[in-house]
Amino acid sequence: MQFLRSQPVILKKIIRPDGSHYRRGERYSSSAEWVTGGLLGEGAYGKVHLCEDLANAIKKQHAVKETKLREFNPVEADSWLRLGFSRHVCGLNAVTLQDGAVWWHMELINPRVSLKQLVEIHQPKPLHWRDAVTIATGIFSAIAHIHSYSVKHCDLHPGNVMLCKDLRVKVIDFSLLQPAVTNDDFSLDVQNGLQLFLYMVTAKSFRFSWTEALVQEHVKDDKVLPLVLKMFQPVTNQTAADIAKEFSACRVKGVDEADGIRKDDAASVDRQDIVRESFATAVSEDDVLTAVHNHISQGDSLDDIFAALPEGDNIICD
User: Fold this and answer.
1) Is 262 within a domain?
2) Which of 216, 218, 307 is nearest to 266 (CA)?
């Protein structure tokens, strides 16, 4: 899914569902109406818009994806709904049918800073090991949650990993969601998750072809190396959960010194206040990305930057 730069919000289409075969009844009623707004993103399987619930149900705003009825994937609908609302997975509220189109009503992640955007801001330098381990813990927690329902994501890449307040990960875009039956079915997500970690700590392309020798050349930490080498080993439905726990343990033990650079202690209170104030004036997603870019350039830690990241209706979505 490709996310777009800020555009003025234009409410342009009212959805009056004539069918809601896939729905969380406690969140939406079959008679509810929604009005679509600005374009949030666009991928091979449809466009995602900001959406406002005219009935003012549980959440005033959410995101909605429009896809063609002939491309409707009931496995995606059933499986995504079963995933529920998780700390690390974008939740699905309802799937409705209207005028030959399928509307996927999902959790709104606001603001959205993708892993791709963050790494591009950092280039040509890689992310700090400590930050990469924190993000990898969230990525594998998301994969573990998905695998616990015997399904696989199949499309994990930097644009489908969103970073929220306090560097919390949210995985999005379940268009390619498929059942996972055998142990081999879980391998692609695990491999992609470890590719994402290498993407963060080396600044090499996400699609870079890694070998065991190249991994050993670039990953020197003796706690992290065994985790990354699992991309060349057989996996089970528990592998992602195990890797999440091991990455979390590395984070606690201070892997931030693995690259030979000791991370400074917490920034001064004055500096933290400056970071918070810059986000307090942000009114659009462009403002948020500009603030993130500026504070990274000034040497502020991602911990401090994302601790100050605003949430909710204060930020205008594209």
Assistant:
1) no
2) 307
Name the residue with higher pLDDT: 166 or 97.
166
Which residue ranges make up the annotated binding site?
60
DSSP state, residue 263 = P
Do residue 177 and residue 232 come from a single domain? yes
Which residues neighbour 189 within 8 Å (Cβ) at sequence distance 6 or greater? 143, 146, 147, 152, 153, 154, 156, 240
Using the predicted structure, report yes or no on whether residue 85 has a pLDDT greater than 60: yes
**Rounded Cα distance, 82 and 67, in Å:** 20
Q: Per-residue pLDDT averaged across 225-236, rounded?
A: 95
| Encoded tokens for 73 | 């994937």
Among the candidates 257, 277, 294, a domain finishes at 257
From the annotation, which residues make up the binding site for ATP? 60
Per-residue pLDDT at 252? 63
- Contacts of residue 311, defined as CB under 8 A and 6 or more positions apart, other chains included, come to 110, 111, 164, 165
The stretch 90-96 carries a mean pLDDT of: 84
pTM of the complete model: 0.84
Give the chain's end-to-end CA distance (angstroms, integer): 15
